[in-house]
Amino acid sequence: MKKINVMIMVVVLFLITNVFAQEQQVGKHEFYKIKLDSLAIAYSKTTNIVFPNSILSVDRGSSDVLVQKAKGVDNILQIKAAQQDFTETNLTVVTADGQLHSFVVNYDEKKPLLNLVVGQKNSISDHLGSTEIENEAELKSYAELAFYEKKKVYNVKDYKYDMKLQLNGLFIHEGVMYFRINLENNSNVSYDISQFRFFIRDQKKTKRTASQEIEIHPLYIYNSTEIVVGKSEVCLVFALPKFTIPDKKYLAIQLMEDQGGRHLELQVKNKKLMQLTVLPTL
Q: I need a labelling partner for 164 at 20 to 30 A (CA). Which of 36, 90, 155, 270 fits?
């Protein structure tokens, strides 16, 4: 009888210990921290975030941040500041795979993160349009090499309002193309740069055919500036993911003046694009 009582006590103790252990185990996994990624956005530039799955919902911590889904796709979120120098806030995105993506959002007009890819080996990358994650230092090195390279391309320019916009260098290294662009201000009025944009467009638009545009976002900008004072010039290098231009289309490089009307545009056809120079490996 004593042996039976001892066995019962052992079983009861085992069950109690097991239940207690399970409760502790559940408690360990009940709460956990979600990694917060830092996101710098600007007033005059748009930040694009590419998610691995469709976006279900977006929550802004403040109305100082503007968000919208990119047209034609459901996994790209476009973000920009509604006002300058806003107070730090946050952004929460839920995707179709049930993942919660949380960002701390700050204002940075000079160095915003323009293109981010979520779900790579690193949670966020500033490379859009390639399966490889480019190192920003490497992009800077090759953009600088393109900046000082002597080889030039000609006859791609726009001149009006005493402003001259010219593409004078085309280079490539592996999967990245480098566009060297010169902006010359021959007027006495400073030119405030709102944005540079790159589009692939149809050469002609008929009344019955809708015009299609494909925007290409820079991976990196070398020697970036916001203003070109009168009687001066600047040279910038834009690193873009490798692409070609289909027949009956062209690459439009658009420069917009901030709070002004002196807008300029370059048109680059595929024939000109094929004149690019291969940069040596550093």
A: 270
